[in-house]
UniProtKB/TrEMBL annotation:
It comes from the Bacteria. This is Phosphoribosyltransferase. Residues 19-185 form the Phosphoribosyltransferase domain. It comes from Kibdelosporangium aridum. SUPFAM superfamilies: PRTase-like (SSF53271). The keyword Glycosyltransferase applies.
Amino acid sequence: MSPVTYRTFADRRGAGRQLADHLGHRDWSDPVVLGLARGGVPVAAEVARELGAPLDVAVSRKIGAPDHPEFGVGAVTADGPPFYDDSTLRMLRLRPYDMQRVCDAERAEARRRVRHYQRGREPVAVRGRDVLVVDDGLATGVTAKAALRAVRQAEPSRLVFAAPVCAPQSAAMLQTEADEVVCVAKPEDFRAVGLWYDDFSQTTDEEVVSLLEAAWT
């Protein structure tokens, strides 16, 4: 068996171009591309450019376990109910009620980011349109799931999740939330999204704002 080769993508913009190649030949009905902030926005910008579609932002915040904030037990958006991974809650002997304080704090941060990114602009209307929610990769899927549920409430015609690299189990899990999940790569030995990038430096709020303003103008 040949050794696994990581670093498939140079950076998020390059990954976005590869993802755009997968999506550009498809038939879309009045599409809208939503980049999942923050890292999904540079990827989404390339997809939106290829499709000739408006670009907007989706914000979903991970709800971290008590004393282990990096370990996500769920996620929440600026609006709509939080999503929790029931099996993780059971494993940690937690209830949604136990996470209320963290959930409220993350929702407040999601709302702050939406205000910061939108800069007073109204969000792009998605009702009755094909909507592509784009991220830089899919690991556990908790933030993507919360984002998809929030977008679904706005009644898109078709809801698609797309990312350059996806953990196979998480991609399968999202099939219950999205009408389709599109991945450039679904490695069976998936470990972490960043392993598939040469440059996976953090996307800043300023970069998100710049990309959105460039698309809007």
